[in-house]
């Protein structure tokens, strides 16, 4: 069942990508295809990064209804961008190189993870407490963002809004390459750790007993989550429930939590959901709605179903 | 040999272990008994490096547990805790296979599969191998976790109340399995037990703990005397000998 599920996910992802590239081609083929290929590349990166980050976070926390946004990571990214607009002004913000902005955002997130989460881990606080801290920090960051947004010029607020809502149709082209490198590296590391992650999903005691040094291992995995979330947030903005939706679907489809299967399956489904959703929006609804809204809606609904069903929550 | 030297441990200011010094030579089945809160589980978890040492020294076959790499220790020592944690969608065979992780790092060889088969058979899990852990009864699941610990192939097996939730039949079966493990190879089993009579029937040696100290240390016949038991548990129990084994009548009025 596991391998078959993986094949199905792969086939769907490929099909969806082909449809996305090929449907309703008109006009200058080379131009349209290049545009669509770049857009596809961005969506694939985000789908893979969010799916893998969610699997990793769920594994180390032994909790199936978590997504990285619960830890306030993407909220921090938005806060950083808002502060940049506040200090530099809308025009100043727009004139910084997108790659530089991306690097700054990434550094801020990793810095916060080091300052806030690492000491908590060192003191062997329970992951529940860690997540609660993350949730509270997330609220703090969102509130601070709202405060700063009230302080700035209304025109510049529009710039902030552009940065704080998921936007799948305008992936900044300058970020495609750095994002690709970062996400490929991160996913590569996660794949290399797949057996170790299987062991970690047994919980700290069993993992230590099987030779995992828990604190360094969890620190490394959370670091990886931060990098992946930062990369995907920089590309399209915060997506809260996408990871939850994708990982739950992947687990349903493959019937396993083994990372050798679950990681690729979740990544493929992530791609299929994003690319498929975007294709449907573009061709079915004429771009009348945004993918972010639909993904959040479906993911939120699933979150409630999981909570109500109490499936190993 | 497990050497524990001058180990004290406090949990949020409350002392749990007070200057414990004891050594457990290789081989044999040692039972830790004592009232709740005596520090038995804490002692075991410190030996298995599940908690950081606060003071004192613990070494397993000469390897200090706080400074030896985890991978290395995982080949000579394993622990099974009473709370076995979330299991997700795992089959019994997959779970037992995790025991080979310290040896194969996840890439299982033919030898690993031999070990897995042998563990499944030893703990009567052959028929359940393909079943999901979430479909098993508590007793079966407990056995699967012990089989995983056994499959790790370590010289030392630490078990924290493995008889929890087991009915008399499964409890007896578990103790017989563990007795076989000790008698069959050069394995050492250290086990926390609540039922004194299981310790009396199956252990080679009993460590009796109270208030973070070791109160008595010896064979079942030496440790399980009415005086010692009263000092340990706070009330008088009769002790009878029956077919060469001591029995503690702790349920009496």
How would you characterize the overall build of this protein?
The complex is a heterodimer of chains A (313) and B (253). With 313 residues, chain A is mainly alpha-helical. Chain A has helices at 2-22, 29-61, 73-95, 98-122, 127-151, 154-164, 173-192, 194-200, 204-209, 214-236, 242-254, 259-284, 291-309. Chain A has one domain: Orthogonal Bundle (ABC transporter involved in vitamin B12 uptake, BtuC). In chain A, helix 1 (2-22) runs antiparallel to helix 2, helix 2 (29-61) runs parallel beside helix 7 and helix 11 crosses helix 12. The radius of gyration of chain A is 19 Å and the shape is globular. The mean pLDDT of chain A is 79. In chain B, 34% of the residues lie in helices and 28% in strands. Chain B has a domain at 77-153. Chain B has 253 residues and is an alpha/beta fold. Chain B has helices spanning 40-47, 70-73, 92-98, 101-104, 110-122, 138-151, 168-184, 196-202, 220-223, 226-233, and strands at 2-11, 14-24, 28-33, 55-60, 63-64, 77-80, 156-160, 188-192, 205-210, 213-218, 238-242, 245-249. Classes of the chains: A mainly alpha (313), B alpha/beta (253). Chain A binds chain B through residues 62, 124, 194-196, 198-199, 201-206, 208-213, 251, 255-258, 312, and chain B through 45, 48-50, 52, 69-75, 78-81, 83-90, 94, 98-99, 101-102, 105-107, 149, 152.
